[in-house]
């Protein structure tokens, strides 16, 4: 061996090259093998799986959830790249977020959104809800009255679904005459055998190609959701467990005592509602717009949300003003479109389109722009 | 049997002399002093400026800075956070650049190889010196940060990123974990440096090349359009040391960083061997 290397020194370079190939190839292969490993699960029909999911119940679980998005958005000023709130927003639409979840029944839930050197926690323990932000060392403590528990549950998933369960619920709500439901071979998510349920919109105008739910073979809860845009092989949106354990977490996980030096605010219930609204600018805008009157045109996968933008009022604070300026910059960078319905600006991505008309309406839907123009003309 | 014994003794002597050489070199001592000075400067600056507490957390500043006033422990973390992107890599680059190229530059490399020292063993001893430096550097920063912090701000229970409190002792243990993790990361950087050092006879060239590589790696890691490249970057998981400051700690979150480091070490040590074992030593 060493004789060969001595007589032909150039051959030595084969060793580091081989090492590099093994390291890079090994990493890639490990992923493919895990993905293609065919788990053996008893056959279940799509309908059975749907029922399984709805009746699934676990006493406790903990795990890591990763959300990735690749919506194919155009470059937007202040949103793509940069830092601060723009970067956070950017991460949500193109990039990945990691969260750790602990669940031990409806009233014991902890969600920790992991940042690079920070963390945002939402912890619910009985009637106490704590929100902790490590970036500014602050905590918000809210108490929910026992009779408002069901209402509270509805308020939480505003915006992007937080857990695979929520995302699956949203997808299942859309199932009906508009959707073809099939199953494919089994999948493997977070090292667990899972069934895969494929929801395909029947309406050809929808931009959504497929929604794939991975359902745990044993516990029947959704482990992952992939949303594919039409004609694209990689998911535009993916929320899945990276690691999951079905052991009931230690009750200590749900106890939060604000550490010394923490700013603690205890908002009243009314303020709390507002807080939830302002979690994201978009959520706030949505909530406001809802107050101004929104309607849904069309139904199923091709429904278009039509909202009227609130008029600018003097009540906005300085911080809000900066946001508005940024929003204006974004709006002005979008291409202008016009037609018999009027004129406005169009935001187009692989998965959805949004139209901002000059008369102050916002139309959003998982459809091609033509469908939006049609709705705008109504 | 006796032959084996003699070999072992010789080996440890070579290593000991290498470590002694590294330790007595003035520039290495100055480098360590500079590393230790940064947390002290941070602590004094925070003490003097002492921003009013109502303004805390508004602008924030770099990570961990806002917590320094309430607990000296965070001086160490702030120091590590500040030094990780440039100072620590430069320290390793200085050490690694010197390893082979330094000997070649001084003309001592051929004498070193005339004594019965195999080239592989020479590389191994040189790398061992780099590894020691890689683990020592973050420990020095942390120790100086803890001392400066305790002196100026006092200690107390440490708040984790998850908002729980742990005792100061447990905090120190976490800090030790952070130092060890970064030690592994810097060891991988040192392997790349050792390879660069075998390519040239100018130690400065290897040092600058390694520093530039580190900075380039950090910059590439910031560009979202290149996210397909990110898993392969050496520096991508360095900031993961924050995982050790959560509660509960998920050790599996450190796995990608350790695997990346291991991969870099394997590939670049092989490359250093391929280059050095077949090279004509003329100086």
Structure description:
Chain B: This is ABC transporter permease. Chain B: It comes from Winogradskya humida. Chain B: It holds the Pfam family ABC2_membrane_4. Chain B: Keywords: Membrane, Transmembrane, Transmembrane helix. Chain B: The chain crosses the membrane at residues 30-50, 70-96, 127-153, 173-196, 203-223, 253-274. The complex is a heterodimer of chains A (378) and B (283). With 378 residues, chain A is α+β, with helices and mostly antiparallel strands. Chain A folds into 3 domains: 2-36; 46-264, outer membrane lipoprotein receptor (LolB), chain A; 280-377, no CATH class. Helix content of chain A is 29%, strand content 33%. Chain A has 10 helices and 19 strands. In chain A, strands 1, 2, 3, 4, 5, 6, 7, 8, 9, 10, 11, 12 and 13 form a 13-stranded mixed sheet that branches. In chain A, strands 14-15-19-18-17-16 form a 6-stranded antiparallel sheet. In chain A, a hairpin with a 2-residue loop joins strand 16 and strand 17. Chain B is mainly α and 283 residues long. Chain B has one domain (9-48, 62-277). Chain B has 10 helices and 2 strands; from the N terminus they run H-H-H-H-H-H-H-E-E-H-H-H. Chain B has helices spanning 2-24, 26-49, 65-68, 73-84, 87-106, 109-114, 119-153, 168-199, 203-222, 255-277; strands at 158-159, 165-166. In chain B, strands 1-2 form a two-stranded antiparallel sheet. The longest helix of chain B is centred in the middle third of the chain and has 35 residues, at 119-153. The model of chain B is unreliable at 1-6 and 54-60 (pLDDT under 50). The A-B interface holds A 5, 9-10, 12-13, 15-16, 19-20, 23-24, 27, 64, 80-81, 90, 94-95, 100, 112, 114, 116-119, 121, 130, 132, 134-139, 243, 253, 256-263 and B 56-58, 60, 63-64, 66-67, 70-71, 81, 156-157, 159, 161-165, 224, 227, 231-232, 239, 242, 245-246, 248, 250, 252-253, 259, 263, 266-268, 270-271, 273-275, 277-278.
């Amino acid at each position: 061996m060493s004789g060969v290397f001595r007589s032909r020194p150039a051959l030595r370079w084969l060793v580091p090259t081989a090492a590099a190939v093994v390291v890079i190839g090994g990493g890639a292969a490990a992923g493919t093998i895990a993905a293609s490993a065919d788990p053996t699960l008893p056959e279940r029909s799509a309908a059975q799986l749907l029922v399984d999911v709805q009746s699934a119940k676990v006493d406790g679980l903990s795990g890591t959830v990763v959300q990735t998005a690749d919506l194919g958005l155009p470059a937007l000023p202040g949103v793509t790249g940069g830092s601060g709130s723009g970067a956070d927003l950017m991460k949500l639409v193109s990039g990945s977020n990691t969260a750790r979840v602990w669940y031990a029944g409806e009233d014991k839930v902890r969600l920790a959104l992991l940042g690079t050197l920070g963390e945002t926690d939402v912890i619910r323990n009985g009637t106490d809800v704590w929100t902790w932000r490590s970036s500014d060392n602050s905590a918000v403590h809210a108490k929910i009255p026992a009779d408002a528990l069901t209402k509270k549950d509805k308020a939480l998933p505003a915006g992007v679904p937080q857990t695979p369960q929520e995302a699956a619920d949203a997808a299942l709500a859309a199932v009906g005459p508009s959707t073809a439901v099939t199953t494919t071979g089994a999948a493997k998510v977070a090292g667990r055998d899972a069934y895969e349920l494929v929801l395909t919109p029947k309406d050809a105008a929808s931009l959504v190609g497929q929604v794939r739910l991975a359902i745990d073979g044993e516990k029947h809860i959704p482990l992952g959701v992939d949303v594919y845009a039409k004609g694209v092989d990689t998911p535009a949106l993916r929320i899945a467990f990276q690691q999951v354990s079905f052991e009931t977490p230690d009750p200590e996980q749900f106890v939060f005592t604000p550490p010394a030096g923490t700013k603690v605010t205890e908002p009243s219930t009314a303020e709390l509602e507002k807080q939830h609204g302002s979690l994201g600018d978009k959520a706030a805008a949505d909530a406001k717009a809802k107050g101004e009157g929104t309607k849904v045109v069309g139904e199923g996968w091709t429904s278009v949300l039509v909202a009227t933008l609130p008029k600018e009022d003097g009540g906005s604070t300085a911080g809000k003003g900066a946001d508005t300026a940024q929003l204006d910059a974004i709006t002005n960078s979008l291409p202008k479109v016009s037609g018999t319905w009027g004129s406005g600006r169009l935001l187009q991505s692989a998965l959805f389109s949004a139209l901002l008309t000059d008369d102050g309406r916002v139309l959003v839907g998982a459809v091609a722009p033509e469908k939006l123009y049609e709705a705008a003309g109504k | 049997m006796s032959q084996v014994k003699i070999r072992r003794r010789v080996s440890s002597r070579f290593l000991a002399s290498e470590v002694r050489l590294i330790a007595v070199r003035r520039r290495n001592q100055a480098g360590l002093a500079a590393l230790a000075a940064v947390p002290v400067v941070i602590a004094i600056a925070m003490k003097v400026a002492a921003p009013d507490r109502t303004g805390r957390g508004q602008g924030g500043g770099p990570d961990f800075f806002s917590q320094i006033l309430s607990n000296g422990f965070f001086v160490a973390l702030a120091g590590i956070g500040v030094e990780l992107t440039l100072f620590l890599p430069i320290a390793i680059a200085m050490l690694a650049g010197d390893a082979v190229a330094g000997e070649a530059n001084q003309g001592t490399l051929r004498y070193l190889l005339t004594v019965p020292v195999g080239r592989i063993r020479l590389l191994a001893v040189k790398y061992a010196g780099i590894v020691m430096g890689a683990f020592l550097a973050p420990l020095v920063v942390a120790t100086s940060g803890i001392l400066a912090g305790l002196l100026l701000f006092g200690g107390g229970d440490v708040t984790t990123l998850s908002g729980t409190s742990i005792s100061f002792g447990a905090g120190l243990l976490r800090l030790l974990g952070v130092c060890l993790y970064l030690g592994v990361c810097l060891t991988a950087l040192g392997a790349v440096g050792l390879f660069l050092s075998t390519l040239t006879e100018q130690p400065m060239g290897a040092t600058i090349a390694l520093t530039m590589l580190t900075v380039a790696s950090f910059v590439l890691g910031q560009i979202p359009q290149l996210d397909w490249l990110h898993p392969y970057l050496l520096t991508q998981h360095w900031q993961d040391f924050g995982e050790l400051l959560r509660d509960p700690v998920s050790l599996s979150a450190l796995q990608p960083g350790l695997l990346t480091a291991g991969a870099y070490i394997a590939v670049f040590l092989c490359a250093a061997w391929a280059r050095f074992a077949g090279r004509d030593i003329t100086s």
